[in-house]
Each structure stands twice: as C-alpha cells, then as structure tokens.
Amino acid sequence: MTKSEEAKPTDFIRAIVADDLQTGKHARVVTRFPPEPNGYLHIGHAKSICLNFGIAEENPEGTCNLRFDDTNPTKEEPEYIQSIEGDVRWLGFDFEQRRYFASDYFEQIYTYAETLILAGKAYVCSLSADEIRAYRGTLTEPGRDSPYRNRSVEENLDLFRRMRAGEFPDGTHVLRARIDMTSPNINMRDPILYRIIHTSHHQTGNRWCIYPMYDYTHCISDALEGITHSLCTLEFEDHRPLYDWVLDQLDTPCHPRQIEFSRLSLEYTIMSKRWLNDLVVSRAVSGWDDPRMPTISGLRRRGYTPESIREFCHRIGITKAPNRVEMSLLENCLRDDLEERAPRAMAVLDPLRVVIENYPAEQEEMLTVPCHANHPEMGTRALGFSREVWIEHDDFREAAPAKFKRLALGGEVRLRNAYVIRCHQVIKDPATGAITELRCTYDPNTLNANPEGRKVKGVIHWVSIRHAVHNEVRLYDRLFLKANPGEDDDFKASLNPDSLRTLPACPMEASLANAEPGDHFQLERLGYFCIDSKDSAPGKPVLNRTVTLRDSWAKIEAKQ
RNA sequence: UGGGCCGUCGCCAAGCGGUAAGGCACCGGAUUUUGAUUCCGGCAUUCCCAGGUUCAAAUCCUGGCGGCCCAGCCA
Length: 560
Hints:
Layout lengths: L2 H5 L4 H11 L7 E4 L9 H16 L4 E6 L9 H13 L8 E3 L4 H13 L3 E4 L3 H8 L16 H13 L8 E4 L14 E5 L13 E3 L1 H11 L4 E5 L6 H10 L7 E5 L11 H9 L14 H7 L3 H11 L10 H15 L2 E2 L5 E6 L7 E7 L9 E7 L1 E5 L3 E2 L9 E2 L3 E4 L4 E9 L6 E9 L15 E2 L1 E3 L4 E8 L23 E9 L11 E4 L3 E5 L11 E6 L3 H8 L1
Parallel strand pairs: 1-2, 2-3, 8-9, 10-24, 11-19, 15-16, 17-20, 22-26
Antiparallel strand pairs: 4-5, 5-6, 6-7, 11-14, 12-13, 14-21, 17-18, 18-19, 22-23, 24-25, 25-26
Helix pairs in contact: 3-12, 8-9, 12-13
The chain binds one RNA strand through helix 6, strand 6, helix 8, helix 13 and strand 20.
C-alpha cells in the first residue's frame, strides 16, 4: 500500500476514525469483532472482521479485540468458539491476547444493574412474556406502562437479588429499563435488561441463572474494553439510542461511538446463521465446512485463500446502501490470486482413449514441463508420455462446429506440453454408437516446436494412460438456484440438486499423487482445484474444484 | 399510514456546489503450446422523480416515488 492510499480513508467509517484521530478525540483507535458463538463464521462476518481488524492495522497503535458475545447460553457451544478463533487467524488477523468474553464482565454488568435500580432507572417486571408483548404496543400504537413499573427501589433490589440467587423459575421475572413506553422507537419501550435462564454457561458454568440481554451487555462491554468505535450492521441502528442511554446512566470508563454499515449479501447463497445451521442439521450439506457453504471454513476447504477473501472485502467497500453482490466478484478475486500462485497440472474428467498408432508401443518418455508457464521460477515437473493417452471427451468432435479449435476427425491438435496429433479414425460402440476410442498419429517434430508449414490452433490437455493415477474429483456448483433464496418461498426449495458432482476416479498425472491437503492447483483448461483437507489420504488426494477458469468458448458455443 | 435508514451504469462503488473515478460483468481487438493469463479499446450528456436556489447542482432546499430494518425474556 502506498502512502497516499494509507492517508486516504476509503469509506465513511474510516473517514470518521481518521477525523477522530486528527482532532485528538482519540489517541488511538480500538475496535472489536464481537461474534456470538452460536454458529460458524461466514463471508459476511469476514467483511466485519476485515473492517474492524483492518482499521486497527491501518492506524498507529490501533488494536482490535475478539470478543465473544456470549449472553445466551441456550444457543452457544464451545465448538463454535474454537472455529471462530481459527477462522479469524486463518484470515490473517492477530488478536494476540485480546480474546474476551462478555461473560468476563457479568459481575460488573450486574453491579451496574443494581446502580440503575438504585437510580430508579430499572425495575423488576413480573408480567409474563405474552403480557409484556401485549403491553409493548405495536409499530403504530404506543405501549402501556407495566403494573410493576412503580415498584419501590427496595422491592426491586430485593427481587433482583433473589432472581440472581435462583429463587425464581425461568420466565417469572425480568429486569427492565425504565425509559418510555410511548417511545416511537420500540427498543426504548422499557427494554428487558436481564432474564432468568437456569442453564449452565460454557464459560461461567452454574455461577449465574440470570443473563443480561445483548443491548444492555454490548455497550457496557465496549466501554469496559475502551472501544473507540463500535462497528455493527444496519439492523442495530434503532438500538443506538438504547446503547447511548445505558452508557449515559452509568459511570463507565468511556462512551464508544456506535456506527452502522450494511451487511453483505451474496447472490445464490444465504447468510443467515439459522438457515446455515438448518442445512447442517438436515444433512443438506456435510457440515459447516462443506465446500459449498459460504462459511469461512467451507470456503477454505473449497480452496479459497485468505488473500482472496480479504481482497473481496476490500473491493466491495463499506457503505450503508443495501446490496447483493454478484458471485463473479468473489470468484474473480480468487482467480486473480490463484492465477499467480497455483502450480499447473493435468487431469481428465471425462476420459476418451486415444491411440497414437505411429508411436511405438513399448516406448515412453518423461517430459520435463514447467509448473507454471508464466512463472519459470516455480520449477518443472516430470510428465509421462506414451502410445495411449486420455483426452477430454468434449475436446473431440467428429464434425467440428464453427470456431471449434480442438480435435476433429481428420484434424490436428496439440497435446499440451507434448506433440501435435492428427485423428484419422473414430471407433464407436456398435450397439450405442458412442465414441469409445480415437486412432491418431503424432508428428515427432512438434515437441517444443511448431509444425512446419501449418498452424495448429488448438491445445488440449491429456494424461498418459500408462502413467496415470486415479483420484476422486468433486465438482461444485452454486448451492442455490435462485439469486435470493427464501425471498418468496422456503429457502430450501431452491437448493441446487447438482451442487456437487463426484467423479470417483479421474485419471491424472502422477505428480498429483503426492499433493498435500490444502494444496492448490490449476488443472489446465479445467479450473482451480484444492486438495480436500478432510477426505484425502496419503497418496490418495481428493480434489475439490474451487472455481472454473473463465470460459469464452462456452459463451461462443451458447450463442451458436 | 409510528420510528430509523437507503436510493450514482447489469452488480459493487468514488464523488461532499464547478461540470460523472475505479473494480466486477459485458462487447470488440492483439498476443498466447491453457478458448486461461496478459495487453489495448468500448461501455452513465447522466446521478429514483418533480420543482426550486445558483453563473454553475449527483452534490443545497421543498415535495413526491421506491426499497430495507424494528413489535424475541435472540444477537
């Protein structure tokens, strides 16, 4: 990044931060990423992570905390904590020792609640959940005061302490802020601060049976951590008055500024943790890290790199405008990255046997070919060649359509990194008429050289049958058929039945047998692939197709 | 029709009173032993609409229209 880029804020939040630093409102910036451990992180969280950790990185002495918003033990699991920490680190952000839990502050938060009660700003309400809802009013009608609203400070304190002591069952009492039941902002109609939940908590065990609500907890946690800018998504905009109200009543170390930005939507996928969980539980996918999932762990297993995801977050920007980003933008970030770093290899997904009749049956060669044509520094690899090779079925046509530059009967094509061959005979299954084999000849003078007196435009990939190893390849496609799943029906109704195609044993060049889980490759002319980190065995890699190459032939063909 | 927010190219998105950046997508064309990559070129007389202020408006004012969010003891 150049100095001018560093100095120039790229979005309205960075502009606010820069201004606050400039004016001396803050000496340094402190942000936080506050997930609830109730599911795996997804690409939408990556946007928030890149924003919060990014701002900290870009400013001198800036820091960003990882804080688990763990105020609801009925929905949270330690497994999620592990995955979230791993995903943040994998994305390339370091929270060092700054891993906190809202539950770290439960005692302080409780003390603040008693302060509110003492000040007459909070009361214990003994209405049932249904009654509270009824008293709340609607969007257009004001709410009504709870009959418990004017309990004495002494009674409130006594009741609240007994709530903590476990004297009451779930749902019998709540602690509420005493604000304004007629507020046009429903969040200000005496919001609930504490509820009774007799459930053990993953961090605090059985120490508590009352748990603070998000609105009450989050602002205090921010203040206790000295957060300067509390960045969250747009749906919390209506909560900001409450965020400020709570901190205004209390003597906290500071009063962070909440700023909201729009969350990420991506076409052909979903971002709701509830829905993602549904896919996992219903076995529609193999898990949170299924390579079709928009989760960080799913993208990682699919073959996305941290760099590509960070670049994506950079390109989409930060605004308050509603958005639904095209998948092609994400895919392009990936291609840009993998184009540079992925070594090349060859495999055939839909094999057609080619016999090169003028190549001696007993002969074979080990060709030395570059790992990356545009990056010689990436070295070379050995590639076996012999009389019989597999080529892609789709790379042959008996009668070539217009602009077809692959192999046709009577025509020539180059075998990538090897010789030019000519096809003179097609062998078919007499019963079905399906093409089963091609008889060809090769031009021995075309290794690393163009043929004399003619041009061969087409180049196709291939694998020597004698040298091939066979491994499973998984071809992934979008998880949903609709750009906005669940928009006007059950989201699962638009699941793509062909989002995964498994090819159990594709012939591929032998060098691939040694690939390690997580390794990236470009299978030439097919796409980028990644060695699956879960289902591969030593010497037996499973290849996940990360993304196809751009395919301008497919466009031409579609038009014809 | 209570409150909050948003509306610049198909999709993101700069712009903050001085005469519409950039990326993705798309369309040409060049190079190419990946129909990939790379490279050149094209792609908003117009900024949701209508008035108004101004020498000058996407930017300011007024009024419309369209969209999103909020009635969990979820976050």
